[in-house]
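User: Can you help me understand a structure? I only have the sequence.
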Amino acid sequence: MQNKGLVKFIAIIFALVSIYQLSFTFVTDHYEKKAKEFAKGDLTKEARYLDSIANEKVYLGQTFAEVRSKEVQKGLDLEGGINVMLQISVKDILKGLANNSKNAVFNQALVEAEKNREGNQTYLESFYVAFDKLSKGSVKLSSSEIFANRNLQEVTTSMTDAQVKTILNRKVAESVESAFRVISERIDKFGVASPTIQKVGESGRILVELPGAKDIDRIKNLLQSTAQLEFWETYKGDEVGQFLMAANNVLKEKKTKQPQVSKDTLKKEEAKTDVDKLLTGVSKDTAANAQQDLGPIVSLIKAPGYQGSPIIAFFATKDTAQVNTYLKDPQVRSLLNGDLRYVKFAWGKAKKDANIVELYALKGNAQNIAPLSGAVITEARQDYDNLNKAVVSMQMNPNGAKIWEALTGKAYTEQSNIAIVLDNIVYSAPGVTQQGGIAGGSSSISGDFTVQEAKDLANILKAGKLPASADIISSEVIGPSLGQAAIDAGLLSSVVGLILVVGWMVFYYGKAGWYANIALLVNLLFLFGILTSLGAVLTLPGIAGIVLTMGTAVDANIIIYERAKEELRHGKSLKEAIASSYSWHGAMRAIVDANVTHILTGIILFIFGIGPIKGFATTLLIGIFTSLFTSIFIARIFLDKDAAAGKIVNFCTSITKNWFTNFNFDFIKMKKATYVISGLVVIISCVSFAVNGFDQGVDFVGGRTFQVKFEKPVEPTEIAEDLSSTFGVTVAAKQFGSANQMRIITKYKVDEESAKVDQEVNELLYKGLKKYYSSNITYDDFIKTSETKTLGVVSASKVSATVSEDIKTDSVYAVIGSMAVVFIYLMVSFRKWQYSLGAVAAVLHDVIFVLGIYSLCYKFLPWHMEIDQHFIAAILTVIGYSMNDTVIVFDRVREFLLGKTKGDFNHIVNDSVNTTLSRTINTSLTMVLVLLIMFIFGGESIRGFVFAMLVGIAVGTYSSLFLATPILVDTMPRKDKKEIERLHREAQEAEA
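Assistant: Let's start by predicting it. Here is the structure, written out as tokens:
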């Protein structure tokens, strides 16, 4: 090997850099263990301890915060925390750009775009399709009624739709970028270690992953708040009382189907003196009238407002949606006249553990624009009022200060109130007690905050408002205790897998096996070093990728060693055998072709995967490159050293010396039987697809999934029945691992995006399951995560139907795309499409086989067999491996066809396949051993994922030998076969 010194230098430098990078992880672990020992299970104490040393220099002159940022980043499934996919509302952005246009075609297109959006199609693309279809050229996007307005001055009425679309694309992209920056700032201020925040293509989606985060509700509120801060003047309760009573009577008469009430009803109601008593003080007749039909609105009032207060009345939190419906009724709105015709009704901020909330009436206007918005805020911080309660103090810019002084001055004069409204929720509505207006632009928001809530609100206001609403369309919550279990399972499977691979290589290849093992250990060091230096996040599928890398890392060594054994049998010296096996015409060409196909499938997996799947792809791709380097260069250093010293290396042991040496199985002769067997498998699988279908995970159909632990074993059917009754919709429950752990799936309100709905689902789950716990488990103990948690919800996820459709589309593209790309590569590399056809046909057979197993067996096998993103990752890995295996076989077929082997075409092909058996079986065996260990020890969460790969590797080995090669033989043109046979005869005659 030339440049041996350079290779050694690079390897040593690379190893030292990797050790340096990994050292930060060990230092961080040391201090985190000290924090745990200090806190003794108190998470608050633990966090404070780590915060207290954040700026202390702990390692090589670097602070703990700096060291911690350079450790191996653990993903959500290993650290616990939350993964959220936010969808920035492009619909809201378009409405804003169109200045809330009332154009019928525009508004109908917005509705149709949401309803008819196809998988993987962005909302904006869907809107264009819907608008073109509805307008039919009669209305242009550049119409003054739509986008040619003061909000979008770049658009002129003379522009074509194509020109306007270009501007809209840019504006929407700018809005999403703005939202990304705002969310990034909020997360940075939140203080989570190593957050991941990234835009997902051009979809308007933002992925946020916060490992280690525990207060899930707080995080969701932080992410979803648009921070639309507004200051509104308010009406007093008695100014709106007459309208409310008139509305109540209108609705009451509608209910009893009596004649409709006219607009004069409001004037008639003004004469009723009991109205003021009802809305501004408790009526003495309340008890007496309790049995009367008070009407839809009045019957829902829990308490009236106070005299002179901006509060109209108090209602139960659960009734707010119904009250909103009543107040939006067209007949009710028609009762509003004069100044009241623009009134905006808004609810107060719901207090913790309270079940009532107040209703306010804000002084709206024709433009629906607040007198003062939060855009004037220049500074916000958490503070305390004179009663030592937490508030948010704000400072305004000069223009805002001027408007604020006029607004507060008017409120003082009229003895009215100013409502401070954030995201359409009234946080407070104070009066102005000091004489005149408030100068200087200082103000504060109060609202029964905790200190943490006040800090979060201040951070949100400082970061700025989102340009449009951000809905959580998918989320995943994993408890720290589950993450630790995943780490333990991953480490165990890794260590056992490593021991098995190392042991097998020594058993089969002797001294050369030790050299392969050294290369393998160096490979793992490089792999972790690169992952750390790149800031890549290690996930449970990532650990699976590392374990898989151990299985495939020795593949290149196996190919080289098998070729070296052949060369030694042909009488070459050790030095000549090594040089020949490492040459392009030896093992290198096969290694390159095999790994390129593997790399291509890994890239596709990286492109189409998100979250843990992208982590798996990252690990796999890095592992391929580090494996190639260590196999080709590191192991050879030792082999060359032995050859130079005259030492003996046989690439085998006394036991394995003659294994597979004279093996001569007629694979081509078996083709009719294998065609029949594989044909039946494909037919049975396809029938099962139609009859049994699949156990599609929430990734593909949408829904909410909870992993719940109980004190003792429970029955899935009983859990499902109880929860279905509680939720009012079908709820599925499956055993997940041990009998006291259930995976619960429901589609209840999955498309409603709000923290309020999430809480409602959590409360219903708690209500339906609390009877299964002998201890009086509280709601917080059941739902919230902690490192010591052993009962209740240990992980939860939600995927909306929109996201699931996109995932399904991406998955199909990924599978088809990987096969298409590899087909093209093989056709270019082998220069005959028959090789590509044989490889792709074999892979297609493998995919159908694995899908068939999952379709046939998911109802009775004890581990989960869902078709989800992890399954697609497994399928793509199977495709990569199957291609790898087939390419190795085909490379030897090509070599034999171009050589001087005796016999007809079929005989030549058959001989070439037989010579690859040792490599095929060795590689497959190491892979199967590793996967079996992962299947047994790797944990329930990846068992289905590993099972798919296990089946795929086994069937992939079969298809490479018994399908790909026969298909190549059968599709090769007869004239090409005859030409090859003629050339071989001539070569043999020339030799003779």
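Now, to help you interpret it: The radius of gyration is 35 Å. The first helix runs from residue 4 to 39. Let me know which part you'd like to focus on.
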